[in-house]
Design goal:
The protein is mainly alpha-helical. The chain has helices at about 5-30, 50-60, 70-90. The longest helix has 30 residues, at about 5-30. It starts with a helix and ends with a helix.
Length: about 100
Amino acid sequence: MTKSEELLELIAAECHNQWCEWMRYLLNKAISYPLAYEPITEVEIGWEVGDYGRWRMQMKTSYKDLSGKEQESDRVEARKILAIITQFNDENKNE
């Protein structure tokens, strides 16, 4: 693995960690939403059937244990971050 690939994987892992934190927050808000003590259904909050269970599993899974497809989703986000850093460095390399 090259240093660039290693960096991409480190950032992708952090993207996954940040997504997990956001989802924990979001799901806790949805679950604790007061609706006269009635449970909220997936339809009421606009989720597809099965999303909640899939997201819960992904939240409990470390980046290294995600499927290749799931890891690639985090790499997409990592590449966006790397592009920002690269652009910043290119614009400021003479300073």
